[in-house]
Task: structure prediction
Amino acid sequence: MELLDSGRSVLVVIDLQGKLMDVIHRPWLVVEATLRLMKLAELFGVPVVLTEQYPKGLGPTQAEIRAGFDALTVPKRYVDKTSFGCCGEPAFLRALDELRPRARATRQVLVAGIEAHVCVLQTVVELIHHGNQVHVSWDAVSGRGEEYRRHALERMAAAGAAITNHESVGFEWARDKNHPRFRELSTLLKDGQPSG
Result:
């Protein structure tokens, strides 16, 4: 597993929706960490995919997350799905290929979202099977209980995913204090920690 490279990365935000958000463990940690990941993606030019699982039944994306996504100026895609794993929706795989075409270097997919033991887990395992390097930001992932979350993260790690957090992501994308966006990164990370 390599360090994240902003030139090869895409951020995927999975199903942070109304009815699901009401039942997950530490929802505000997930919201705050995901908002920071999207701001980091904006800083470092990383494209973003936002998915919704059957929005007619589960409701729309949480308002702050949707507003953050809509405000992005980096390339982005929205995918409506019914399959639990994102890769079961052909539009998702097309979005990844459009935003970050496979080159000689392996595409890196950074994952945030819910629920850890269902849609996130299936997506991560499928992405690895499709030849992507997958990094999962533990602070932006949850489920309806801590045990569901913890065991899902363990299973994702066993499948080959790197378990990370939003701060590590920012520093890996910057790689050096002389990076032209480092001061903005530093300000973003000093702007209060996610409280969860």
Summary: The beta strands are 9-14, 48-53, 76-81, 108-113, 133-141, 162-164. The mean pLDDT is 94. DSSP finds nine helices and six strands in the chain. The longest strand covers residues 133-141.
